[in-house]
Amino acid sequence: MISSVALIQYEYLTGSMADIGDLVFTAIGISRDQEEDTLGIMPSRDSIDETVRGFMTNAEDTEIVEIRIESWTIGQIGSEAKNVVTTHFRETCPICTRTTFWVEGDEIRASCHHRLCRAWIEPNSVDKNRIDCGWPASQRTEACEDFEEAKIVLTRMRAEAEAEIPSESSVTDGSEF
Questions:
Q1: Helix (H) or strand (E) holding 155
Q2: What is the DSSP string of 128-153?
Q3: How many degrees, rounded to 5, is the angle at CA 139 between CA 65 and CA 154?
Q4: Pair 98, 110: CB distance under 8 Å
Q5: Beta strands 36-42; 64-73: pairing state
Q6: Residue 144 forms beta bridges with which residues?
Q7: CA proximity to 71, closest of 28, 105, 36
Q8: What is the pTM of this model?
Q9: In the chain, where are the structural domains located?
Q10: Alpha-carbon distance 49 to 54, whole Å?
């Protein structure tokens, strides 16, 4: 009986979903209290990344402060079946000061997921020794030497924006709007 159930499960997995040796990806949300909650299980890295980005956009009011992306090998038994692909940590954004700034891995890249901010930090695509950062609302980007400097630069961008004096309007007759 047990062998026929196992055979049915194997045929189901191989016939309709995945083959032995294929990978599936999971996103695990971790709260401040270290409680884990599965956010999704997807058949590809792109799908799980999309799921995670969607969650990050709405995570400000949740207790989730870390997201771990794992890959699992179908049919593998033991600790070798799981591989931690990357982790994301939630911090306070240097620009908008909301807790919507997600840092990936060992400070590889980061981005604010608040719709009005979208500040970001990422490695330069040409010079691997340089980190770029930017704030779309101010239409500014800047090159930095490391991740910590990029966070400082973003904080400086916010301070400069807060210190700016509103300019006089060029509209002579406001009633035209």
A1: helix 147-163
A2: TT-EEEEEGGGTEEEEESSHHHHHHH
A3: 40
A4: no
A5: unpaired
A6: 131
A7: 28
A8: 0.78
A9: 21-89, 92-166
A10: 9
